[in-house]
Protein backbone atom coordinates (compact mmCIF):
# COMPACT_ATOMS: atom_id res chain seq x y z
CA UNK A 1 0.00 0.00 0.00
CA UNK A 2 1.35 3.42 -0.90
CA UNK A 3 2.04 5.95 1.83
CA UNK A 4 1.58 8.85 -0.54
CA UNK A 5 5.26 9.86 -0.61
CA UNK A 6 6.26 7.87 -3.67
CA UNK A 7 8.94 6.19 -1.59
CA UNK A 8 9.82 2.52 -1.64
CA UNK A 9 9.08 -0.16 0.97
CA UNK A 10 12.16 0.68 3.02
CA UNK A 11 11.16 4.33 3.32
CA UNK A 12 7.65 3.34 4.38
CA UNK A 13 9.12 1.29 7.23
CA UNK A 14 11.24 4.28 8.29
CA UNK A 15 8.26 6.68 8.30
CA UNK A 16 6.28 4.58 10.73
CA UNK A 17 4.37 6.23 13.56
CA UNK A 18 5.28 4.83 17.00
CA UNK A 19 3.34 5.60 20.16
CA UNK A 20 5.19 5.27 23.48
CA UNK A 21 3.23 4.97 26.68
CA UNK A 22 3.93 3.84 30.22
CA UNK A 23 3.12 4.61 33.84
CA UNK A 24 4.24 7.75 35.62
CA UNK A 25 7.71 7.29 37.11
CA UNK A 26 8.85 4.63 34.64
CA UNK A 27 11.50 6.94 33.19
CA UNK A 28 9.98 8.03 29.89
CA UNK A 29 11.71 11.44 29.96
CA UNK A 30 15.14 9.92 30.57
CA UNK A 31 14.71 7.29 27.85
CA UNK A 32 13.47 9.86 25.35
CA UNK A 33 16.37 12.20 26.12
CA UNK A 34 18.78 9.36 25.37
CA UNK A 35 16.80 8.43 22.26
CA UNK A 36 17.18 11.99 20.97
CA UNK A 37 20.94 11.56 21.29
CA UNK A 38 20.97 8.18 19.55
CA UNK A 39 18.39 8.95 16.85
CA UNK A 40 18.64 12.57 15.71
CA UNK A 41 16.56 11.91 12.57
CA UNK A 42 13.46 10.83 14.52
CA UNK A 43 10.63 13.35 14.71
CA UNK A 44 9.51 13.83 18.31
CA UNK A 45 6.00 15.13 18.74
CA UNK A 46 5.66 17.88 21.35
CA UNK A 47 2.39 17.50 23.22
CA UNK A 48 0.07 20.27 24.33
CA UNK A 49 -0.87 20.30 28.02
CA UNK A 50 -2.81 22.38 30.49
CA UNK A 51 -0.59 21.41 33.41
CA UNK A 52 1.95 23.85 34.81
CA UNK A 53 5.61 23.49 33.78
CA UNK A 54 7.86 21.55 36.15
CA UNK A 55 11.27 22.99 37.06
CA UNK A 56 13.54 22.87 34.03
CA UNK A 57 10.78 22.31 31.46
CA UNK A 58 10.81 24.63 28.45
CA UNK A 59 7.69 25.64 26.51
CA UNK A 60 7.83 24.28 22.97
CA UNK A 61 10.54 21.77 23.87
CA UNK A 62 9.08 19.53 26.56
CA UNK A 63 5.44 20.58 26.04
CA UNK A 64 3.38 23.38 24.58
CA UNK A 65 1.84 24.82 27.75
CA UNK A 66 -1.64 26.27 27.20
CA UNK A 67 -4.64 27.21 29.33
CA UNK A 68 -7.87 25.23 29.42
CA UNK A 69 -9.67 27.61 27.04
CA UNK A 70 -7.01 27.36 24.35
CA UNK A 71 -6.96 23.57 24.72
CA UNK A 72 -10.73 23.35 24.24
CA UNK A 73 -10.43 25.51 21.12
CA UNK A 74 -7.81 23.15 19.65
CA UNK A 75 -10.09 20.17 20.29
CA UNK A 76 -13.06 21.92 18.70
CA UNK A 77 -11.02 22.84 15.61
CA UNK A 78 -9.80 19.27 15.10
CA UNK A 79 -6.18 20.31 15.59
CA UNK A 80 -5.33 17.37 17.87
CA UNK A 81 -4.61 13.82 16.77
CA UNK A 82 -5.65 12.65 20.21
CA UNK A 83 -6.40 14.17 23.57
CA UNK A 84 -6.98 12.89 27.06
CA UNK A 85 -7.24 13.93 30.68
CA UNK A 86 -4.71 12.51 33.11
CA UNK A 87 -4.24 13.32 36.79
CA UNK A 88 -6.47 16.38 36.47
CA UNK A 89 -4.72 17.87 33.45
CA UNK A 90 -5.40 17.73 29.71
CA UNK A 91 -2.88 16.51 27.15
CA UNK A 92 -3.06 16.36 23.37
CA UNK A 93 -0.97 15.73 20.25
CA UNK A 94 -0.96 18.42 17.54
CA UNK A 95 -1.97 16.69 14.31
CA UNK A 96 -0.22 18.75 11.64
CA UNK A 97 3.47 18.27 12.68
CA UNK A 98 3.01 14.49 12.88
CA UNK A 99 1.35 14.22 9.49
CA UNK A 100 4.01 16.48 7.95
CA UNK A 101 6.86 14.35 9.33
CA UNK A 102 5.32 11.09 8.14
CA UNK A 103 4.67 12.53 4.68
CA UNK A 104 8.34 13.50 4.51
CA UNK A 105 9.38 9.93 5.30
CA UNK A 106 10.63 10.58 8.85
CA UNK A 107 9.88 8.08 11.63
CA UNK A 108 7.69 9.83 14.19
CA UNK A 109 7.37 9.17 17.91
CA UNK A 110 4.55 10.21 20.23
CA UNK A 111 4.86 9.92 24.00
CA UNK A 112 1.31 9.90 25.37
CA UNK A 113 -0.86 8.34 28.04
CA UNK A 114 -2.93 5.18 27.63
CA UNK A 115 -6.17 6.97 26.72
CA UNK A 116 -4.40 8.84 23.93
CA UNK A 117 -2.62 5.70 22.69
CA UNK A 118 -5.98 4.00 22.30
CA UNK A 119 -7.30 6.97 20.31
CA UNK A 120 -4.32 6.88 17.97
CA UNK A 121 -4.73 3.13 17.48
CA UNK A 122 -8.39 3.70 16.54
CA UNK A 123 -7.58 6.56 14.16
CA UNK A 124 -4.37 5.08 12.71
CA UNK A 125 -4.42 1.26 13.00
CA UNK A 126 -1.01 1.03 11.36
CA UNK A 127 0.62 2.88 14.28
CA UNK A 128 2.96 0.83 16.47
CA UNK A 129 2.19 0.92 20.20
CA UNK A 130 5.12 0.44 22.59
CA UNK A 131 4.87 0.26 26.38
CA UNK A 132 7.78 1.36 28.54
CA UNK A 133 7.63 -0.82 31.65
CA UNK A 134 9.57 -0.86 34.94
CA UNK A 135 11.76 -3.84 35.85
CA UNK A 136 9.30 -4.61 38.65
CA UNK A 137 6.34 -3.11 40.48
CA UNK A 138 8.50 -2.47 43.56
CA UNK A 139 10.96 -0.54 41.41
CA UNK A 140 8.17 1.71 40.11
CA UNK A 141 6.91 2.35 43.66
CA UNK A 142 10.43 3.39 44.71
CA UNK A 143 10.74 5.76 41.74
CA UNK A 144 7.42 7.46 42.45
CA UNK A 145 7.82 7.77 46.21
CA UNK A 146 11.44 8.87 45.83
CA UNK A 147 10.57 11.99 43.82
CA UNK A 148 9.56 13.92 46.94
CA UNK A 149 7.72 16.49 44.82
CA UNK A 150 4.12 15.39 45.37
CA UNK A 151 1.98 14.66 48.40
CA UNK A 152 1.15 11.04 49.35
CA UNK A 153 -2.42 11.26 48.04
CA UNK A 154 -1.16 12.20 44.58
CA UNK A 155 1.42 9.40 44.65
CA UNK A 156 -1.25 6.90 45.69
CA UNK A 157 -3.43 8.01 42.79
CA UNK A 158 -0.54 7.70 40.35
CA UNK A 159 0.17 4.18 41.58
CA UNK A 160 -3.47 3.19 41.12
CA UNK A 161 -3.40 4.56 37.57
CA UNK A 162 -0.08 2.80 36.94
CA UNK A 163 -1.64 -0.55 37.82
CA UNK A 164 -4.37 0.06 35.24
CA UNK A 165 -1.83 1.09 32.61
CA UNK A 166 0.41 -1.93 33.15
CA UNK A 167 -2.66 -4.18 32.97
CA UNK A 168 -3.21 -2.87 29.41
CA UNK A 169 0.06 -4.43 28.22
CA UNK A 170 -1.74 -6.92 25.88
CA UNK A 171 -3.01 -3.96 23.82
CA UNK A 172 0.57 -3.00 22.91
CA UNK A 173 2.67 -4.36 20.07
CA UNK A 174 5.94 -4.25 22.00
CA UNK A 175 7.14 -3.83 25.59
CA UNK A 176 10.49 -2.23 26.45
CA UNK A 177 11.68 -2.72 30.04
CA UNK A 178 13.56 0.28 31.41
CA UNK A 179 16.18 -1.44 33.55
CA UNK A 180 18.93 0.63 31.93
CA UNK A 181 18.24 3.93 30.14
CA UNK A 182 20.77 3.51 27.33
CA UNK A 183 19.70 -0.04 26.56
CA UNK A 184 16.00 0.86 26.69
CA UNK A 185 16.58 3.81 24.35
CA UNK A 186 18.54 1.65 21.89
CA UNK A 187 15.76 -0.96 21.83
CA UNK A 188 13.11 1.73 21.37
CA UNK A 189 15.10 3.31 18.53
CA UNK A 190 15.21 -0.06 16.75
CA UNK A 191 11.42 -0.25 16.99
CA UNK A 192 10.88 3.37 15.90
CA UNK A 193 13.15 3.25 12.87
CA UNK A 194 12.20 -0.28 11.83
CA UNK A 195 14.22 -2.60 9.63
CA UNK A 196 16.84 -1.06 7.40
CA UNK A 197 15.89 -0.89 3.71
CA UNK A 198 16.99 -3.90 1.67
CA UNK A 199 19.27 -2.43 -1.01
CA UNK A 200 20.35 -5.70 -2.58
UniProtKB/TrEMBL annotation:
Give the UniProt subcellular location, in the record's own words. Answer: Cytoplasm
Q: Which residues form the signal peptide?
A: none
**GO function terms (MF aspect):** ATP binding; GMP kinase activity
Which reactions is this enzyme annotated as catalysing? GMP + ATP = GDP + ADP
Q: Where is the Guanylate kinase-like domain?
A: 15-193
Q: Where does ATP bind?
A: 22-29
List keywords of the entry alphabetically. Answer: ATP-binding, Cytoplasm, Kinase, Nucleotide-binding, Transferase
Region of interest (Disordered), residue spans = 1-26
Sorted alphabetically, the Gene Ontology cellular component annotations on this record are: cytosol
Q: Tell me which InterPro entries the record gives.
A: GK/Ca_channel_bsu (IPR008145), Guanylate_kin-like_dom (IPR008144), Guanylate_kinase (IPR017665), Guanylate_kinase_CS (IPR020590), P-loop_NTPase (IPR027417)
- Top-level lineage group: Bacteria
Enumerate the CDD domains for this protein. Answer: GMPK
Q: Does the keyword Signal apply?
A: no
Task: State which Enzyme Commission number(s) the record gives.
Answer: 2.7.4.8
Keyword ATP-binding carried by entry: yes
Q: Which HAMAP family match?
A: Guanylate_kinase
- UniProt family annotation: Belongs to the guanylate kinase family.
- Say what the protein does: Essential for recycling GMP and indirectly, cGMP.
The protein's name: Guanylate kinase
Q: Which gene encodes it?
A: gmk
Amino acid sequence: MSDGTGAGPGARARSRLTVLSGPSGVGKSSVLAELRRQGPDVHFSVSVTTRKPRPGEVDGVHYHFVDAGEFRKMVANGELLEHAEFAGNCYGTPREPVERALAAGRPSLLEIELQGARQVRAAMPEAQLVMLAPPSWDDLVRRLTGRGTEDPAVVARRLAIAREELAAEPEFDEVVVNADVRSAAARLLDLVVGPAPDVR
